[in-house]
Amino acid sequence: MNRPILLHTDRISKTFPGVKALDGLNLQVRKGEVHAIVGENGAGKSTLMNILSGVYAPDEGRMTFDGKEVFFKHPRQAQEAGIVMIHQELSLATNVSVMENVYIGRLKTGKLGFVRYREMEKACKELFDRIGIEGIRPDQTIEELSISQMQMVEIAKALSLEAKLLIMDEPTASLTHRETEILLGIIRELREQGVSVLYISHRMDEVFAISDQITVLRDGKYIDTLRTAETSPNEVISLMVGREISKSFKRQYGAVPSGAKPILRVEGLCAGEKVRNVDLEVYPGEIVALTGLVGAGRTELVQSIFGIDPRTAGRIRLDGREVRIRSPRDAIGLGIALLPEGRKIQGIFADMSVRENISMAGLRSFARGLMLMRKKEARAAEEYVSRLAIRTTDLEKEIKFLSGGNQQKAILARWLLTKPRLLILDEPTHGVDVGAKAEIYEIIDRLAQEGVGILLISSELPEVLTLADRILVMRSGEVAAELPVGEADQERIMKFATA
Amino acid sequence: MQALVRLARQAGRQKEIPILAALLILCVVIAWMSPFFLTWQNIFNVFRQFSVIAILAVGEGLIIITGGIDLSVGALLGLMGVLGATLASLGWPAPAVFVATMAFGCAAGTLSGLLITKVRINPFIVTLGMMSVARGTSLLITGGMPISIDNGITYLGGGHIGNVPVSVIIMFIVAICGYVFTTRTLPGRNIYAIGNNERAAKLSGIPTDRMKIMVYVIMGALCALSGMIVSGTLDTAEPAAGTGYELDVIAAVVIGGASLSGGKGSIPGIVMGAAIMGVLRNGFVLLQVSAYWQVVTIGLVIIGAVAIDSIKNRSANA
Fold it and tell me: Does A115 or A258 have the greater pLDDT score?
């Protein structure tokens, strides 16, 4: 198993104003190996990837690739050498065909400069067969594809560039369980063909399912490289956070008083095409998980409960009383809070301070008439910063300078400050590092113990199984199954979600 | 000690400091080149000249903070002056003229706001259309001829309290109100939230449409106020008054540190931006630079200010 070394970095460093993002990093990647890079947010993973793919030049250190010393000043040079990065935000032209995207910039043309589509289609098909991509036709347009299919097109494009090293940054972040399986299959196929893959992910189960080696980074420094077969998720996590994790998170079940009335009761709710005749109940102190494939209508369901999307039929009762919710404002007034998915798009006010971000949804409680009571506001924000252990140097710092996990905790604080009876969480730990994730779990658990009803949307089945009291599986707009947590496991949930 | 650290940190965060520095440097340079610049007469002159731009810039600032824009300010100013003068010529008493003109301004702002939020037309297009409608209406009412005013309402533009022109006092009042509004009130906070992330603002329970209509209404009222000031200065309402003001006003807002993509900007900065525009124009006159060069320079200043903003944003995101 001593395959030749493809990439070797020798003490590369990169400093940004105020941070040493990467500090003397040594990394060795062998040919035909899947090498996972793990670390908390801010550990230097993105910086490393950007250096390898030529986006940034390192300040110090040297890099050898495929036997030659290299120094990339531009992504194009890295690409020509055979390093291709697949970014989290995909970079395909959406209203153009699959094959044109694969061969973008290198369209096959005849003597007169006309594009030879037939030839290109054939080459594209061969490429797909070679790596086991199924169900995509070369002449489809990109907008007809799902996110996971787009990712496969990106991979095909990289391979058509004769990539020797493929860098994938959180490739499964927006994929469902089954799509993830397909992607991992393709990565295994690539490995067989001698392509090396640098695989960045927060998800330990995937890292252990796919990688040969795992390199751990912490605070910009190289910590260790481990053979996947000889280590365990707990060991890797403790290296990432720099301390031994005593035990993984366990819920403290609060007793749901028998005979309690449901906080939320939804009857026959319909909203457009995506939500069809949904009934559900959430009791005080209960965590109800809503799971299923992306596109099953989970987000649409909670958005219609929260008054964002209009309902076409059905009733909503809070504490037994029927309520009319026509806007988020109505919902907030009734004691409902929604932590939306997509922190950057729907959550943070990037240029505003941590204080302003935290107080936003409950701002009316700090106003006398139209005037804000700023001392009261600051005190409340400060209280939540310490209660949720949000790491920031001060309240007036702009939120964009906080790490992803801390931003997410600040948005959670925004909703807790409204003192909700019902808290809806839509993918609350998406893109959050392991440490912050455990903290968010603890916060959710504590809220349930205090009697808040919680409706949790999550695509991460381990998360669902850890947190939920009851699991609702959605499939094409309907609730396909309801499982108490004792009777649920990943296989059963997936069976209902995909059947 | 801790208080001192906090104070220093706060001062470091004040984004107006570079703008203030630019204004002071500009003043020093012009004063050095023209001894007339620092006479009381000229100083009041400068203040009076930029007071209207500053008043309008406060309103435009609020709109730009929400992520919108208003191109109709100059034309609305002209129309409001004409409407006020028409009412005055019908023999209305000054307070009635004032109230009615302000109401017209609010109505014009409401119309723009409704078109932008309810019909969902891009603010650039709505206000570009309003600009033409307002200017055309002024010309229709007056037949293209100026209306002379013999009414107490001219006090707003021509009056003095002691040595200080009334328009300058109005400017300070508007600026202070704007400052309090943006920093200490609920709707003021909301408009920053909308400019930063409208979707998140809506999810946080902010009535985004109502807030957006509100800023256009405020703008309409300030256009009415400015229209009465401008016509009061000359005792005459010109149908062409305010032509091209939108450029100076938007420039003042941008120079004052607001970002055209919304969510950023402060009233003190915006007023200083207006002052820079005023001092620059005054300097050109004192130094006897050709009026044509003024036009070119103002354009360059605007592009320069936006370029600085864009470069700053890029380095912050890298």
Answer: A115
Q: CA-to-CA distance for A29 and A49, rounded, in angstroms?
A: 13
Put simply, the chain B residues between 51 and 80 with a CB less than 8 A from any chain A CB are none
Between strands A287-292 and A453-457, the pairing is: parallel
Q: Which of A356, A371, A414 sits opposite B185 (nearest CB)?
A: A371
List, for residues B49-91, the tens digit of each pLDDT value.
899 999 999 999 999 999 999 999 999 999 999 999 999 999 9
Q: Which of B296, B291, B295, B302 is closest to B252 using CA atoms?
A: B302
Answer whether residue B112 shows pLDDT above 90.
yes
Q: Is the pLDDT of residue B11 over 50?
A: yes
Whole-prediction pTM value?
A: 0.76
Across the interface, of A340, A352, A394, the residue whose CB is closest to B192 is A352
Q: Is B15 on the interface with A (CB under 8 A)?
A: no
Kindly state whether B313 is in contact with chain A, defined as any CB-CB distance less than 8 angstroms: no
The CA distances from residue A137 to A86, A157, A487, B85, in Å, are 21, 14, 40, 70
Quote the CA–CA distance of A214 and A32 in Å, as a whole number.
14
Of the listed ranges A27-31, A411-415, B31-35, B303-307, the least confidently predicted one is: B303-307
Residues of A in contact with B13 (CB under 8 A): 396
In this structure, what CATH number is given to the domain that contains residue B259?
1.10.3470
Report the C-alpha dihedral over residues B87, B91, B94, B95, rounded to 10 degrees.
Answer: -80
Mutate to test the interface with B, among A304, A360, A375, A401 (most CBs of B within 10 A): A360
Q: Taking Cα atoms as reference points, which of A82, A83, A84, A103 lies closest to residue A92? A: A103
Q: Which two tokens stand for residue A218?
A: 């912490």
Determine, for residues A346 and B193 on separate chains, whether the beta-carbon distance falls below 8 Å. no
> Do B206 and A329 count as a contact with CB atoms less than 8 A apart?
yes
Residue B205 sits at the chain A interface (C-beta within 8 Å):
yes
The domain containing residue B173 runs over which residues?
Answer: 16-311
Reported ipTM: 0.88
Instruction: State how many domains chain B has.
Output: 1
CB-CB neighbours of A136 under 10 Å: 18
Cβ neighbours for B306, distance < 8 A, ≥ 6 positions apart: B254, B260
> Quick check: is B34 in a domain?
yes
What mean pLDDT value characterizes chain B? 92
Contact in structure between B220 and B112 (CB atoms under 8 Å):
yes
Nearest to A475 by CA among A350, A290, A210: A290
Residue A479's pLDDT band (cuts 50, 70, 90): very high
Spatial distance between the Cα atoms of A326 and A295, rounded to a whole number of angstroms: 23
pLDDT tens track for B179-212: 999 999 999 999 999 999 999 999 999 999 999 9
In a domain, B286, yes or no: yes
Sign of the four-CA dihedral B137, B138, B142, B145: negative
Minimal C-alpha gap between A223 and chain B (Å): 26
In a domain, B295, yes or no: yes
Please report where in the chains the tokens 């960045």 appear, as a residue.
Answer: A200
Q: Does B12 touch chain A (CB under 8 A)?
A: no
Q: Has residue B317 got a pLDDT over 60?
A: no
Query: Tell me, what amino acid is at A299?
Result: T
Q: How many helices (H) and strands (E) does chain B have?
A: 14, 4
Residue B5 maps to a domain: no
Q: Which residues of B touch A373 (CB under 8 A)?
A: none
